[in-house]
Specification:
2 domains, mainly alpha
């Protein structure tokens, strides 16, 4: 099984045999929005307010986000395969073995079941029988989508971290300042970007939810932890690759230094006719050393860091805006 295998969430969406995005919308309406509206219908004493409408909109976007996020990251994983495989010792076989666990159906099912048990435990202790049935339908959909998303993202993070333990076939620093590892950084950026979109939706969900459970005093601390987790998702999976790149650069520095010493000795002992050749070699080694010093020891550059900041900025803005709105609501 490799990353080209669709996740359970993707297979579920494809049951309608429609374009993927349209399928996400229809399932979100059928198994989430409509059941929630029906559940509201059985509670006529609680009319839907403006905040309730915003809450339903956020719920809809979240339910569409789960399967779309899985699809987006898996697409990025497939696009990165030929580039990352080129630096792996066994090429595509290594790539499939490393990331194949991310689409393990057993792992996805176990996470889905765990989420379902938590959801059902909460549902059976709240509301009427009608509300329990409707909420259970919603819980099955959310658990299926969220379970696939969690397992797949976790599998990708672990896979990227494991790549650092392999004997990577780095490209020459003369042709690539990242030695062929930039696609790993790009893949990590895709994971973090998709995660931060989910964090924004979670912040909006807690801000618009009528349930006081999502108004706990330490919510801003939870947001800060979620932001730190997103940053860790970008840097930690690449740390072992970083160590490999440091080792490779040190090895190349040692080779250049040895060649420089040998050529310097040859220059001193050689005749006039060979001195010009030795000087040319020394100049080439000096230029190679300068290029090596500009070689990065992380599989990303300032461009990827800038994109990470762009993903991070709206998350921080949403968290601050939610906190300010909560303070205004308390003081009114």
């Amino acid at each position: 099984m490799g990353p080209e295998q669709p996740t359970i969430a993707e297979k579920f969406v494809r049951l309608f045999h429609l374009p993927y995005f349209l399928g996400c919308i229809i399932w979100a309406l059928v198994l989430l929005e409509i059941p929630i509206l029906l559940e509201r219908h059985f509670r006529p004493h609680e009319p839907i307010s403006g905040q309730g409408i915003l809450y339903l909109i956020v719920i809809f976007f979240m339910s569409v986000y789960f399967p779309l996020s899985v699809r987006y990251v898996r697409t990025k994983l497939l696009e990165a395969e030929p580039k990352i495989s080129s630096v792996l010792p066994d090429g595509e076989a290594d790539y499939h073995k490393t990331f194949g666990r991310a689409v393990s159906y057993l792992g996805q099912i176990l996470v889905i079941i765990a989420i379902l048990f938590m959801a059902i435990y909460v549902i059976v202790h709240t509301g009427s029988m009608t509300s329990r049935v409707i909420n259970s339908i919603c819980a099955v959909y959310i658990a299926t989508m969220l379970g696939s998303l969690i397992w797949f993202n976790l599998g990708c993070i672990i896979g990227l971290y494991q790549l650092g333990g392999k004997s990577l076939k780095f490209k020459s620093f003369r042709e690539d300042p990242k030695m062929g590892t930039r696609p790993m950084g790009s893949l990590c950026l895709s994971l973090s970007g998709a995660y931060f979109v989910g964090v924004i939706l979670l912040i909006l969900f807690s801000a618009t939810s009528p349930n006081e459970l999502y108004k706990i005093p330490y919510l801003k601390v939870i947001y800060a932890v979620l932001i730190l987790v997103g940053l860790a998702m970008f840097f930690i999976p690449l740390y072992r690759v970083h160590l490999r790149m440091v080792e490779e650069r040190n090895r190349q520095e040692l080779l250049i230094q040895r060649q420089f010493d040998v050529t310097s000795n040859n220059l001193k002992s050689s005749g006039v006719e060979n001195q010009l050749n030795n000087i040319q070699v020394l100049l080439s080694l000096v230029m190679a050393d300068r290029k090596l010093q500009s070689t990065s020891t992380w599989p990303f550059d300032t461009s990827l860091l800038g994109q990470l900041f762009i993903f991070l900025l709206p998350v921080i803005a949403a968290a601050i805006a939610t906190y300010v709105a909560e303070l205004i609501r308390i003081n009114l």
